[in-house]
Amino acid sequence: CIIVSGCALGVDAIAQEQCLKNCGKTVGVLGSGIDVDYPKTNTFLIGQIRRRGLLISEYPEGVEASPENFPIRNRIIVGLSKSVMAFDVRARSGTQCTASLACQADRNLLSIPYPLGTDFINNTLIKDGCYLVENGDDVRFLMNNF
Predict the structure, then answer these.
(1) Which among 70, 92, 106, 139 is placed 20 to 30 Å from 126, CA to CA?
(2) DSSP state of 25
(3) What's the pTM value of the predicted model, to 2 decimals?
(4) Is 58 exposed, middle or buried (0-12, 13-18, 19+ CB in 10 A)?
């Protein structure tokens, strides 16, 4: 299993940190030039990925991250992935964009359920055929059976 992520805050960073901590393989896809660490709070993590994983970008050196770059970056993440795990999916968010790209590219989409009455649309994705993930065993099972 290789973790492919956008080096973003939150779940992205946690997944890549844990991957590196456990001697796994990870790919970071940047929405900036390869020499621009974004977000700045993940500079240490991005440096670790540079040394021990693979860091890629389709932008020339020196290009700063900007909002219009992230949907483009997300299509690369999906293209490199067999399965996409979507956490914290809000309507019209970057994560929803990635989930939609995964469906369009015929990738396996995995998500966790959320309590009713929240702003998250994970449950709708699951109702629409996204694989339900409740724990690590579910992820292992799905990865071994795709």
Answers:
(1) 70
(2) E
(3) 0.91
(4) middle
Residue type, 35: D
CA distance 51 to 46: 9
- Write the CA distances from 76 to 90, 123, 136, 141, integer angstroms: 21, 25, 25, 25
Q: What is the structure's pLDDT at 22?
A: 96
pLDDT in tens, 32-74: 999 999 999 999 999 999 999 999 999 999 999 999 999 999 9
CA-based nearest residue to 109, from 121, 123, 125: 125
User: Six-digit token pair at 70?
Assistant: 């992230």
DSSP code at position 22: T
Burial label for 117, CB within 10 Å (0-12, 13-18, 19+), is: exposed
Furthest-apart CA atoms within the chain: distance in Å: 44
128 within 8 A of 103, measured Cβ to Cβ: no
**What token pair was written down for 15?**
């997944």
